[in-house]
Structure formats: C-alpha cells, structure tokens
Design goal:
The structure holds two protein chains of two kinds.
Chain A (H helix, E strand, L loop, with lengths): L3 E4 L2 E5 L4 E7 L5 E7 L5 E7 L2 E5 L2 E6 L4 E6 L8 E8 L5 E3 L3 E6 L1
Parallel strand pairs in A: 2-11
Antiparallel strand pairs in A: 1-3, 3-8, 4-5, 4-9, 6-7, 7-8, 9-10, 9-11
Chain B lengths: L4 E3 L2 E4 L5 E6 L6 E8 L3 E9 L2 E5 L6 E5 L5 E5 L8 E8 L7 E2 L3 E5 L1
Parallel strand pairs in B: 2-11
Antiparallel strand pairs in B: 1-3, 3-8, 4-5, 4-9, 5-6, 7-8, 9-10, 9-11
C-alpha cells in the first residue's frame, strides 16, 4: 500500500463544475503539499498545509490531521485547470513522498 | 527573479553511458532537490542538497549521485545507464527554512 493515496486517478468534468480531489496518507507529516503539473512537465506548487484550510483564487485546500486526509477543491472549473494534480507529504527530514496524481480534464 | 533552470532539456543516451544534469536554483535558495518521474512509478525523491551537503536521499541505487557547488548550483549524475532510467528528471529549489518548492522545467532523458 502506498504511503500517499489519491483519488480519483482520473476525472473528467464540465466547465463550471465543482471538483474535489482527495489525498490520504499513512505516515507522520510536517506538511502536505498540492502540486499542479501541466502537459510538458512543469510543476507548480499550489499549497503547503500543516493544518486547517487555505484558499487561492478558485482553489481551496483542506487538511484533517487526525484523519490523515486532505482535499483539493476547484470551484467554477475551467478548461485551463486541466492538469495532473499531485499530493505530496513531507516528514521532519524534508523527504518528499508523492501520490500517483489525479489527471483532471475539464471540458468546455 | 529568474526561475529554476535545468539543462539540458532533452537528451538521448545509450545503455552503459553516463549522464550529468545541471540545475541552477533561484537566487538565494540554498536547497536543491532532485526527483525522477516515470509513467510507471510517478514522482520519486532522489536526494536533497543544502549548502553543499547531501541532507536526504531516496531509495535509488548508487549509480545515482549528485553534488552541490558553493553557488548552490547542483548536478546529478547517473552512471551505467539502464533502459529503466528513461525519465523526466526534475529539480526544485527552496529557501533554507521554508518547505515550498519551486520546480524547474525538467530534463527528459531517453536511454536507448
């Protein structure tokens, strides 16, 4: 079993829909990260969380430390949101463990 | 502020050869980490350097090595290349105390 699990693996949505991507982890962490990877490979850090909730534009990330679970929400989705979203956790040693990613496609 | 620069962007090697990839971090960032991304295994952590010292290492064989120079630029080397080393190699930098990474565009290695 992977230490970081994401669901769903693939997601297709219509423009304007509310999207949720889930991440569960089984190790102790110092922080959880959400990353976005567009075709071509470039990766952008979206959020770093150690507790609670963060919001940036149409993106919202939440984390529940007791349940070892995080969610990434996209409101009013747009085709430009189409990308792979990757959850990663860091331990006190700054070693990153990555989920396998969620491939999101938003249709116009 | 310039981003993280990786060179070369694309390269093709044959089995048994070695390869060196370069990463120039954002100015002021003292930490550089390296990652391998393949379709089968996803993103995997290779190693991290901070102030010229390797601070952490992932589960890769000794053929994978790296170093960091006094100007924080880093190189990673893969010796005796195998077909399975074909991957996108990404580096990322961050300021010493922060955990937020800034990634480079990657070096795509194909081993024939």
């Amino acid at each position: 079993k992977n230490e970081v699990e994401q669901s769903p693996q693939n997601l297709t949505a219509q423009e304007g829909e509310f999207i949720t991507i889930n991440c569960s982890y089984s190790v102790g962490i110092s922080a959880l990260h959400w990353l976005q990877q567009h075709p071509g490979g470039g990766i952008v850090s979206l959020f770093m969380l150690s507790s609670g909730k963060k919001k940036h534009g149409r993106l919202i990330a939440t984390i529940n430390i007791q349940e070892k679970h995080s969610s990434l929400h996209i409101t009013a989705s747009h085709p430009r949101d189409s990308a792979v979203y990757i959850c990663a956790v860091t331990s006190g040693t700054y070693k990153y463990i990555f989920g396998t990613g969620t491939r999101l496609k938003v249709l116009a | 502020k310039a981003g993280v620069t990786q060179t070369p962007r694309y390269l093709i090697k044959t089995r048994g050869q070695q390869v060196t990839l370069s990463c120039s971090p954002i100015s002021g960032h003292r930490s550089v980490s390296w990652y391998q991304q393949t379709p089968g295994q996803g993103l995997q952590f290779l190693f991290e350097y901070f102030s010229e010292t390797q601070r952490n290492k992932g589960n890769f064989p000794g053929r994978f090595s790296g170093r960091q120079f006094s100007n924080s630029r880093s190189e990673m080397n893969v010796s005796t290349l195998e077909l399975g080393d074909s991957a996108l190699y990404l580096c990322a930098s961050r300021e010493g105390g922060a955990n937020v990474l800034t990634f480079g565009a990657g070096s795509r290695l194909t081993v024939l």
